[in-house]
Design goal:
The chain is built from 12 helices and 26 strands. The chain has 496 residues and is an alpha+beta fold. Helix 7 runs parallel beside helix 8 and helix 8 runs parallel beside helix 9.
Length: 496
C-alpha cells in the first residue's frame, strides 16, 4: 500500500478541514455537493502527484499557496487567505492592536520616514521623532524596502528588542535607538477638539476597530460637558473602515433610537440581518458635517450613507470608495484564517454603495455603469443614487479648499445660535495640535496629508489667524518664533 508522504497528509487534512468548515457553513444542493467532492478529489490527487513525482523537488506549502491564491483571484479582492504571518494583520483590523514599536511610517522622497510615533509606545518614549529617516533596522539597510517589509522587521514577539538607526535633520551623525516590541493599542479617535469661540467640535476617526464607538461617544461627551458645543465635524477621510458593529453604534449616536442603520443580505438566510439603533442618541439637533474622500470605505460609508439617508448630516468631500461587501473572518487549521465575503450591505434608503461588480467570478471586474444605477430617496425626499459609493452633498475636489474648511463654511449658514465660523481660522483652531497646511491656493502641499505633519515641532497657521494673502505663518512650538513665508517655503521647512 502506498504511504502518503507526511507533508501531503497534513495538507490533505487541512483541505479536508476547510471542506468540513464549508460543509457546516453552507449546505450544498445535491449537484453542488457532487461537484464539490469530485473536484476536491481531482485537486488532491493532482497535488499529491506534483509534490511526489515532478522532475524537480517542489515545495508543498508554496505549491498549495499558489493554488489557493489562484482560486481566490476569481472572487472579489476582499476574500483573502491569511497564513500565520498574515494573521497579525487581523488583530489590527479587528482589535486595533499589534506587537511592535509604535511607529507610523511612510515613504517620502524614496526614503523610509517616520510620520508619527504612537504616543506611549517604545518609539515615542525613546525619542524617535516625526521626520526621522530610518536607515537601518537590526543591521538591515532600508534601501529598497517596501512598507510590508518594514512591518515584518519592526513587529515581533512582545518583549523582544530591535535596534534602528535614523538620520535626523540637524544631527551631526545617525542616531541609534534600541526599541522594545510590545502590544501597541491604536487609537480609533486620533484627535478631538472644541473651539471655544465658535462651539465647533471636531472628531477625527481613523478606523473602526473595537471600542471605536466608545471613543467617539467619549469625545462628544467631553465637548458637551463644556456647555459650548454648537456643531460637530466628524472626519472620516482616509478611513478604510473596519467592524460593522462599530459603524452601527457610532451612527446611532446621531439618529433616533430604533431607526434602521444598515441591513445585510447574502446567499444564505443567516446573512440577512437588520441593524437598528438600540440606544438613545447623544444628539439629534446639533448641526453635523461628515468629511469623506475617495479612501473612505466600508464602515465609513455606512456611517456617512445612513446619516445622509436620514438627512441628519451634510456630507462634504469626494465620492467615497464604494465598498458595500461584508466580510467575516473564519479560523482555519494551523493558525491560518479566511476572510470571506458573505453578504452585501444596504443603507436605510435601500441602496447599495458597491461600485464594482465582481459577480462574474472570472477575475474580470467592471464599474457599475450609470445606466444600471437606481434612484432612491432620503427621509426628506432628496434623490440619491446607488452603485457608486456615497456621493457628497457638497463636493470638494482635492486641491481646492480643504474638506474641513468647506464643511465649516457650510455649517456657518446654520442659525447663529447653533453655529458660527471664521473660515480658515477655525481650521487652525480645530487642528491646533498638529501642523496645518491648506493647499487651496496652489498644489504645493497637495501631496502631503495632514497625518504627515502630526507631532512636528513646526506649526503652519493659515487664514485670518495666519499671515497675509498668499502667505502663511510658520511658528516653532517650543520657542514661539514666527516667520511669514510662502506655502512652498513652509512645506519645505516642515518636512525638511
Amino acid at each position: 500500500m502506498k504511504r502518503v508522504p507526511h507533508p501531503i497528509r497534513h495538507a490533505s487534512l487541512a483541505v479536508l478541514l476547510v471542506a468540513c468548515f464549508f460543509a457546516g457553513f453552507w449546505m450544498p444542493r445535491d449537484d453542488d455537493f457532487f461537484a464539490l467532492r469530485k473536484n476536491f478529489q481531482i485537486f488532491g490527487a493532482l497535488y499529491e502527484e506534483l509534490v511526489t513525482g515532478y522532475v524537480d523537488p517542489v515545495n508543498p506549502e508554496t505549491l498549495m499557496r499558489t493554488g489557493i491564491d489562484a482560486m481566490l483571484l476569481q472572487l472579489d479582492p476582499y476574500t483573502n487567505f491569511y497564513d500565520e504571518a498574515d494573521n497579525a494583520d487581523i488583530d489590527i483590523i479587528t482589535r486595533g492592536r499589534y506587537a511592535g514599536v509604535g511607529l507610523n511610517v511612510g515613504i517620502r522622497n524614496d526614503k523610509i520616514t517616520v510620520v508619527s510615533p504612537v504616543e506611549g509606545a517604545s518609539g515615542y518614549l525613546q525619542g524617535v521623532r516625526a521626520g526621522d529617516i530610518i536607515l537601518r533596522i537590526g543591521g538591515t539597510s532600508t534601501v529598497g524596502l517596501t512598507l510590508a517589509d518594514l512591518r515584518v522587521l519592526l513587529r515581533g514577539e512582545p518583549g523582544t528588542a530591535v535596534e534602528i538607526t535614523v538620520e535626523r535633520e540637524g544631527a551631526p551623525a545617525p542616531i541609534d535607538f534600541l526599541l522594545t516590541r510590545e502590544e501597541v493599542q491604536l487609537k480609533n479617535v486620533s484627535h478631538h477638539q472644541l473651539d471655544p469661540e465658535t462651539g465647533i467640535g471636531y472628531v477625527k476617526l481613523e478606523r473602526f476597530a473595537r471600542e471605536a464607538s466608545e471613543e467617539v461617544r467619549a469625545a462628544i461627551k467631553t465637548m458637551q460637558e463644556t456647555g459650548q458645543l454648537a456643531g460637530i465635524v466628524l472626519d472620516l477621510r482616509d478611513n478604510p473602515g473596519g467592524l460593522l458593529e462599530e459603524a452601527v453604534e457610532i451612527t446611532q449616536q446621531f439618529v433616533p433610537q430604533g431607526k434602521e442603520i444598515v441591513s445585510t443580505r447574502g446567499r444564505l438566510p443567516q446573512t440577512e440581518r437588520s441593524y437598528t439603533g438600540k440606544m438613545p442618541p447623544l444628539t439629534l439637533d446639533l448641526p453635523l458635517a461628515v468629511l469623506v474622500n475617495d479612501v473612505s470605505a466600508s464602515a465609513s460609508e455606512i456611517v456617512a450613507g445612513a446619516l445622509q439617508d436620514y438627512d441628519r448630516a451634510v456630507i462634504v468631500g469626494q465620492t467615497t470608495f464604494g465598498k458595500g461587501l461584508v466580510q467575516i473572518v473564519k479560523p482555519l487549521p494551523f493558525n491560518t484564517s479566511l476572510k470571506i465575503t458573505t453578504s452585501q450591505y444596504f443603507i436605510p434608503s435601500g441602496r447599495s454603495i458597491q461600485a464594482i461588480d465582481y459577480r462574474s467570478h472570472d477575475g474580470n471586474f467592471a464599474t457599475i455603469p450609470d445606466s444600471l444605477r437606481r434612484a432612491f430617496t432620503t427621509a426628506g425626499g432628496r434623490t440619491v443614487m446607488d452603485g457608486h459609493g456615497i456621493e457628497p452633498d457638497l463636493h470638494v475636489s482635492r486641491g481646492e479648499v480643504s474638506e474641513l474648511e468647506a464643511a465649516l463654511q457650510l455649517l456657518e449658514k446654520a442659525p447663529p445660535t447653533s453655529f458660527c465660523s471664521k473660515s480658515l481660522g477655525i481650521v487652525y483652531a480645530a487642528l491646533g495640535d498638529c501642523a496645518v497646511y491648506d493647499d487651496r491656493a496652489d498644489r504645493a502641499g497637495a501631496k502631503f496629508a495632514d497625518a504627515d505633519l502630526m507631532g512636528h515641532p513646526w506649526q503652519v497657521i493659515v487664514g485670518p489667524r495666519g499671515a497675509a494673502a498668499n502667505k502663511v505663518e510658520l511658528k516653532r512650538r517650543m520657542t514661539g518664533e514666527r516667520h511669514e513665508v510662502s506655502p512652498e517655503d513652509a512645506i519645505s521647512r516642515v518636512l525638511g
